[in-house]
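Subject: design request, 162 residues
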């Protein structure tokens, strides 16, 4: 495990699609390159194989809740590569709909986050993760909601302001 931070260009986008259960059905070349896996090793695998252990579960709880309701979400995510390296992304995750307006899959476009945003997100995620380890996801969720209440903003307003 090398645990080195990888980056990608500000003009580049990481794109992937999953089925309704979160299994990868498509990844663009940058997604495949950054993951450290080959394409066949990624297809039909759970997207959470890229989940870094520094990520608080509450972020994914919110993400899945939103997209299953047919809504988009923006989130900062730390991903882990096959060999243990990591990279940060600013993700825009959306549901895709079939002709009957039923959710057919999920689509994520990720760009390079700003250092300014990461300066806020990294300590926040560390706090949320610690709360999850000591008190569970509900304690972490309460802490996130308290922060948003103190700032007088919604989750979306907070994330998009960074």
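Subject: RE: design request

Done. Sequence follows.
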């Amino acid at each position: 495990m090398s645990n080195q931070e990888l980056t990608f260009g500000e003009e580049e986008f990481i794109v992937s699609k999953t089925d309704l259960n979160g299994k990868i059905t498509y990844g663009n070349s940058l997604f495949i390159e950054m993951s450290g896996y080959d394409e066949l090793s990624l297809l039909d695998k759970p997207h959470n194989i890229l989940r870094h252990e520094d990520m608080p579960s509450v972020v994914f709880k919110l993400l899945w809740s939103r997209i299953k309701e047919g809504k988009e979400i923006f989130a900062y995510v730390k991903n882990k590569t096959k060999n243990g390296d990591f990279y940060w992304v600013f993700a825009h995750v959306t549901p895709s709909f079939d002709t009957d307006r039923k959710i057919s899959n999920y689509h994520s476009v990720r760009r390079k986050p700003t250092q300014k945003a990461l300066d806020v997100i990294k300590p926040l995620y560390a706090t949320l993760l610690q709360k999850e380890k000591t008190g569970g996801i509900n304690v972490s969720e309460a802490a996130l909601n308290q922060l948003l209440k103190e700032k007088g903003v919604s989750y979306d307003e907070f994330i998009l302001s960074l």
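The first strand starts at residue 14 and ends at 18.
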